[in-house]
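LAB NOTEBOOK - FOLDING QUEUE
OPERATOR: T.R.
BATCH SIZE: 2
PURPOSE: Compare the predicted structure-token outputs for two unrelated chains run back to back under identical settings.
PRIORITY: normal
REVIEWER: second-year student, initials M.K.

ITEM 1
FIELD SEQUENCE / FIELD STRUCTURE:
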Amino acid sequence: MRDLLVADPNRLAEDDLVGRAQSLNLDPVAFRGCLSSNKYRPAVEKDITEAGSLGISGTPSFLIGRSTPDGVDGIILVGALPFPEFESKLKEYEGK
């Protein structure tokens, strides 16, 4: 399912998701029921809130440094960035 979602991230409406589930031979009625139950909504919203408080606004995200009880100590990079940018930030953190 992840591969299908990443292949076309602009199609995330419920009917699109159910159609993708069907293409994987999942039970569409059970899948739609799971979606509409919002069972995992609180956990997802908690993760989104925590990520936002740390300055993480998307995926992939990388921390150069360490996590602490209060958040992070280091540099957060968001997105699929070219290696030279990672290298630059690694050197910047190393110099601290």
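ITEM 2
FIELD SEQUENCE / FIELD STRUCTURE:
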Amino acid sequence: MSRLDANRDAARQLRITLVERPVRTQEEARAALAGLRKGEVDGILSLPSVALNILGFVLETAAQRAIPTMFFDPFDVERGGLASYSANYYQVGRQAARLVDKIIKGAKPADVPVEQPTKFELVINLKTAKALGLTIPQSVLGRADRVIQ
């Protein structure tokens, strides 16, 4: 299941309307974000893209229009996003290194089982929450792996 399919499924289960704005270029990303208005959306979920660097567009639009953002990478939260929830990339790298080590030592790649991430991190930016006028419940902050002041 792709990330987008997982998000669609989660939105259906939560009875949330997911408005998709697929973009292929930075210009399309800028145009899609420029059309967003506060009150028309409750937040922006930015899927990672190796082909497009739209983080700046998302953060700029979200700040200008006071729209909360959710990302898959803590890096984006450190730059002003509200929150992220994703696999711990350090642990994923360690898993990958362990698998490569097995292959280097003679294991056939087809015989090495696929491993899923086991550690996920919730990162919350309280400075951004305050700028948006949001109060993050203590129960959520208590679950966060990292809170950016």
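REVIEWER COMMENT (ITEM 2): The chain has two domains: 1-67, 85-149.
FOLLOW-UP: none requested
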